[in-house]
Amino acid sequence: MDFFDRIKTIIFNPKEEWRVIEAENDPHQKVLASYLLILALIPVIAILVGYWLVQDPTYAFKFGIIKAVTQLMILVGGAYFTSAIIYAISDQFGGEKDFNRTFSLIAYSYTPLGVAGLFYFYIPLAWMVPFLGLYGFYLLYLGIEPQLKPVSEKKSLCFIVSLIVMIGIWAAFFKLSSEIINSMIMNSGYGIRF
């Protein structure tokens, strides 16, 4: 399926799209290369352009590169770490243990966060990105059954645990990236902490 069609359908018709994704059962390498990396480039490019437009070009370029790389780390690294943990515990929910399906679940659930990254083009609206990304939790909920196939009485528990893992990994990567950004900025002589 075309990248933009997938974005449109996973956001506006998620129940039907999860069934399509279930039937495709693409390997995680394909989902990474044909979807998640492209999705991750949306906020990366928006950050670079947004910071360059509103800041001193020298400072903005350095900070934009650092912020863009950490955003890429959060989306791609976060998807792999989250998938690995959920995969490791998926048999506790009576479902199938399939890393490809687990990775697809997480990668496609990141769609709203990646698309919301467009707001980084205009940095004063960047605060909206995490809030718009919350729709990904709903996508996660809808995708649990077709992707992980937990037994019906453990579906809610599977969702809650997956959600906690997703938020925990995101928070850990965000904290790590903030520390990296802060140390690089402090070492650059700008003296600003984020």
| Morphology call | globular
Rounded radius of gyration (Å): 17 Å
Oligomer: single chain
Discrete helix count: 9
Distance between the termini: 39 Å
Number of strands: 0
Keywords:
194 residues; mainly alpha; 9 helices; 78% helix; globular
Can you give a write-up of this model?
The protein has 194 residues and is an all-alpha fold. It has one domain (3-188). The protein contains 9 helices and no strands. Helix 5 (99-109) packs antiparallel against helix 8 (135-148). The radius of gyration is 17 Å and the shape is globular. The model has no long low-confidence stretch (mean pLDDT 88).
Quick recap:
The protein has 194 residues and is mostly helical. Helices cover 78% and strands 0% of the residues. The protein is globular and about 55 Å long.
